Amino acid sequence: MQQNTTFDILIIGGGLGGLIAAIVLGKKYKVLLLEKDAYPRHRVCGEYISNEVLPYLQSIGIDPIAQGAKKIDRFEISTHQGKLIKTALPLGGFGMSRYELDNLLYKKAAEFAEIVIETCTQVDFKDNSFAITTKENLHYKATYVIGAFGKRSNVDKYLHRNFIQKKSPWLAVKAHYEHPFEDDVVALHNFKGGYCGLSKIENNAVNACYLTTYHSFKKVKSIAEFQQKVLSANPFLAKFFQNANPLFEEPLTISQISFEDKQPVENHIFMIGDAAGLIHPLCGNGMAMAIHSGKLLSEIFLQNDFNNRTILEEKYTKIWSETFLKRLHTGRRVQGLLLQPSLTKAFFNISKMVPSLLPKIIAKTHGDIVI
Q1: Beta strands in 179-295 (DSSP E)
Q2: Could you report the per-residue pLDDT of 84-132, keeping only the tens digit for each?
Q3: Domain 6-166+258-364 has CATH 3.40.50.300
Q4: Band of the pLDDT at 313, cuts 50, 70, 90?
Q5: CB 176 within 8 A of CB 97
């Protein structure tokens, strides 16, 4: 017989933001986290995380460096043709797989919150509370719901969110490889129709994650052919994929990735991580943003009247916008530049003459140290 069906807070999605919220809020409130897939597992994403969130993770008992995460302090970026710029990374960061980091956070969250591996299918707000239904027809009630369900979800469709109604041209591919890549570097290599990030993770594998358009991908019949014919037009990616030994049976993929604007509160649901807004890749800072958004929302709950929904929603919307909107807009502009070869060439020429330019742009997609 099902127990504990009524909660103060129900979190839909157990990625970085959702797990952070479960850890912090579960210490004070009755919290349930619904996650559709069991831990540990791999996810499609870059696996570089800015040091802006490292002190915060350590403060809640998660120390990626102690678990073998690679310290990263250098950045490389190349054009389609292989022109390269190298620079130091503002703040620096670390490389760690989602497989390992999510699992560390999951074990910590399980100490404070109830976690159920189930798929949420319906979430409805009525009479100042939520009714939640899962795929296995489990029913829960909660005073508040936090949406941490990632880039796109069936829950987005159920809620009729604006971005989910629009077709998106983007898809992402990710896999791990054995390759002699430098531990302290994160690289972003451009190719026609997209860009590929490379960085080392805790088990010495190299995470390769690339974003591309359907227009670029539809001309080939497979991921292997795309990597051979399109990515490998960039000499750095050609060298990597020709010599790297794949560690996955098949690469992981995700389609219909949307960079449209999203609202931090919709249908009275507090959105965190990619559910609130996805940043275009520039050193993979989306993971740090997800962690930071989980922290910000948790503090809103802890520092204000739990029973005043209006105040909680207003304060979270304000702090989320102040913290992340400029970063998202900067990422959008940078992506537009990188996808146009003539603009990319001009940018590289200017960056070589003005070495401080690239670090300044990177800093605009990152935040200050989170404590």
Answers
A1: 185-191, 194-200, 206-213, 245-246, 252-257, 265-266, 269-271
A2: 999 999 889 999 999 999 999 999 999 999 999 999 999 999 999 999 9
A3: no
A4: very high
A5: yes
| pLDDT above 90 (res 286) | no
Q: Are 277 and 262 in contact (CB under 8 A)?
A: yes
CA–CA separation, 79 and 102 (whole Å): 33
Extended strands (E) in 36-147? 48-50, 70-78, 84-95, 114-117, 120-126, 129-134, 139-147
Helix axis angle, 341-353 to 309-338, nearest 10° = 90
Q: d(Cα 347, Cα 367) in Å, to the nearest integer? A: 23
Three-class DSSP category at 14: coil
Within a 10 A sphere around the Cβ of 356, how many other Cβ atoms?
9
Cα gap 274→324, rounded to integer Å? 12
The structural domains of the chain, with segments of one domain joined by +, span 6-166+258-364
pLDDT tens digits for range 165-212: 888 888 999 999 999 999 999 999 999 889 899 999 999 999 999 999
